[in-house]
Structure formats: C-alpha cells, structure tokens
Amino acid sequence: MNFLRVTRRRLQLALAVQRIVAPGERQRRHLVIMKTFPLLRSGICAFLGALPLAGADAIPAAATEHNYVRIEGKDLRAIGFDVLSQFKYTIYDAGSGASADEIKAAMNRDQVPAWIRVLDHERVALTGYMMPLTFENGLSTKFIMMKDLNTCCYGAVPSMNDYVIVTMKDKGISPVQDIPVRLVGTFRIDQKYEGDYLVSLFVMDGEKFFGPLK
C-alpha cells in the first residue's frame, strides 16, 4: 500500500506544478507527465495484480509467519494443521460418488495452494496427534499424524489435508497417543490414487520422533 500512496502523491505534485508554471513550460511539463503516467499506471496494475482477488482463498496468518525451531543445531520450519488444513480440498473418487470423468480430471488437477506447495520436499518439524497403522516388534513404522483428537480417535471423517501419512526411514517408534507430538522428517505432497480411490495427499519420510510437544 506504500507504493500506491507514493505514486498517488507523485501524481498530485505533478498536477500542482502544472497549474503554477508558465503556459509554455506547462505544455512541456504536461508532455513529461503524459510520458511518465503509463509507467506509473503499469506499476500500479502490476501491484494490484499481485493482491488476492475478492473471494479468493486468503492465506492464513500461520502460513505467513514461518516459525522455526532449533533442533540438534539446525533451524527447521515448524508446521502444523493450523497451516495444512486451511484450504478446501474436494475429494473426487469412487467413495465420494464421482464419475469416471470427474476422477480422471481430478487426477490432473492441483488443488494445493502455492503457500502449501512451498513446503514440498522440505525438512520440517510437524506437530499433530499420532495414530499407529503398522507395528513391528512393538514399534510403529507407519502411522498418521492428524489434526486433532476428533479425527484421530473419535470417528470424525477427516479431510485429505487434515492428516499426514508418515513412514519412518529407520526403526519404528513407541506410539504416544491422545496428546500432540512432534516429528522431524521430509514433508511431501503426494496426491495418489489406487484404482478409483484417493489414498493420500500429504506424506512424510520420518527421521526422528521427539514425543510430546513441550
């Protein structure tokens, strides 16, 4: 908005000068203003074009804060479902009653906004609620990190962007449930269909589990 105020002020000053100078000089100044105005106008249009349109999905405040946590000497982007869940994702698959044409179109459609897309393949610290999927020698090697206890434990149907499917790269971890936990790993956007069913959107290659959020 500072750009618009400065540009508007420049135009006001230019017009004020035009009114007080001599006629011959006024004509010369007028030509200068007319040559300059298209540049100013194009700058304003470029600026306005970068602003979100009315009715467009707004970027949530949490997505612009870029919080980092220092873990083992490295600064990692801290993310949670206050960011990941803040856009509408519509499921088109056999389970939702979508037609074959709708499913085919959805396979090639990107519903993930740019402010989530920037996290793709980034090493992050993710916070959420854990729900184990597989066990090996009492340890979970594959689990889901979810938005809240409702989607984790009480049967509420989650949106695709309300959870992240985690596969540990090395050994599994001891499950910690019912409280928020933190995990470090590489976050990936992986919209995947098996047959006509959508099975994933967000996945993570888990590296280290830090347990309950402190």
Task: Describe what this molecule looks like in 3D.
With 214 residues, this protein is an alpha+beta fold. It folds into two domains: 2-49; 61-212, Protein of unknown function (DUF3299) (OB fold (Dihydrolipoamide Acetyltransferase, E2P)), CATH 2.40.50. It contains seven helices and seven strands, in the order H-H-H-E-E-H-H-H-E-E-H-E-E-E. It has helices spanning 2-20, 23-49, 61-65, 81-84, 100-107, 114-117, 149-153, and strands at 68-71, 74-79, 122-136, 139-146, 163-168, 181-194, 197-212. A five-stranded mixed barrel has the order 3-4-5-7-6. Strand 3 (122-136) and strand 4 (139-146) form a beta hairpin. Helix 1 packs antiparallel against helix 2. The longest helix has 27 residues, at 23-49. The radius of gyration is 26 Å and the shape is globular. It starts with a helix and ends with a strand. Residues 1-23 and 25-56 have low confidence and may be disordered.
N- and C-termini, Cα separation: 39 Å
Do you know the CATH topology of the largest domain?
OB fold (Dihydrolipoamide Acetyltransferase, E2P)
Rough outline: globular
Q: Which CATH C-level class of the largest domain is it? A: Mainly Beta
- Oligomer kind: single chain
Question: Which structural class do the helices and strands define?
Answer: alpha+beta
How do the SSEs run, as a string of H and E? HHHEEHHHEEHEEE
Total helical elements: 7
The CATH homologous superfamily of the largest domain is called Protein of unknown function (DUF3299)
Strand content: 25-35%
Number of domains: 2
User: In which range does the helix fraction lie?
Assistant: 25-40%
Task: Write down how many β-strands occur, each being a DSSP E stretch of 2 or more residues.
Answer: 7
Q: What is the CATH-assigned architecture of the largest domain?
A: Beta Barrel
Q: Using only CA atoms, what is the Rg?
A: 26 Å
Q: Give, in spatial order, the strands making up the sheet with the most strands.
A: 3-4-5-7-6
Tell me about the largest β-sheet.
5 strands, mixed, barrel
